From TrEMBL:
<dbReference type="GO" id="GO:0006163">
    <property type="term" value="P:purine nucleotide metabolic process"/>
</dbReference>
<dbReference type="Pfam" id="PF02540">
    <property type="entry name" value="NAD_synthase"/>
</dbReference>
<feature type="active site" description="Nucleophile and sulfur donor">
    <location>
        <position position="175"/>
    </location>
</feature>
<dbReference type="GO" id="GO:0016783">
    <property type="term" value="F:sulfurtransferase activity"/>
</dbReference>
<dbReference type="InterPro" id="IPR052188">
    <property type="entry name" value="Ni-pincer_cofactor_biosynth"/>
</dbReference>
<dbReference type="InterPro" id="IPR014729">
    <property type="entry name" value="Rossmann-like_a/b/a_fold"/>
</dbReference>
<feature type="domain" description="NAD/GMP synthase">
    <location>
        <begin position="9"/>
        <end position="81"/>
    </location>
</feature>
<dbReference type="InterPro" id="IPR005232">
    <property type="entry name" value="LarE"/>
</dbReference>
<dbReference type="InterPro" id="IPR022310">
    <property type="entry name" value="NAD/GMP_synthase"/>
</dbReference>
<protein>
    <submittedName>
        <fullName>PP-loop domain protein</fullName>
    </submittedName>
</protein>
Amino acid sequence: MLLQKKYQKLRQLLGECGKVLVAYSGGTDSAFLLAVAVQELGDNVLAVTAISPTSTKAEVAEAQQLAKELGVHHRIIHSKEMDLRDFVGNTAERCYICKYSRYFDLQEIAKQKKIPWVLDGSNMDDLDDYRPGNRAIKELGLRSPMQEVTLTKSEIRQLSRQMGLPTWNKPSSPCLASRIPYGQEITEEKLRRVEKAEEYLTKRGFSPLRVRHYPAEARIEISPEQFSKLIEKSKDITKGLRELGFPKVTLDLDGFYSGSLNKNLPDKGE
């Protein structure tokens, strides 16, 4: 079976690395990569999670819990992208600036620990969207093992489920900065408002979802199948999000679309 061949190839690749640092967010991809690395290399794996105001408390807690269950050495560092003018200015290069800063710090840790490889959890699907962060991976010389063995997101979910990982069906959740349209300043106040708004909607059964933070509105993205549910609860939802500081609440009729803010970029090439 092709999928099992890819999986065995990944195991072999990781085993040959000898000692690795895994850039670990706690999402489906990095969790799977970390689990397989631990399986092959045991104590020769260090998981590092970079956190900042762009992270949610729930994501950090989930990452810590899984790392504990895997029995892996886990370190949390505080990244500094919010101190970078070009990041908070929120250009189309935002992701590149953040990834370069974070991965540079991971490489420094790897050098200190004499770890030869820093691994990233990118998969084949990540090559299809506008992801300037991929350039930072190449420039800094990180490895993306799951791209090397051509694993897709759906295949990673399937293998994760077979391994019993709780992240096998975890919705993709890019950093909170991705909820703010390009050209609008990223502030901690906006990030916390988005986090609270998405928590509010998640508790009411909406998933997957995004709350885009426009200057005068919260624009909700959910699947079309949930439109009627949201409309039924529109008064309560509008009230709840206004209390968080959004003057207006709207529904995006295009529905949920990961990376929707990228579609209007004039040039998505890297």
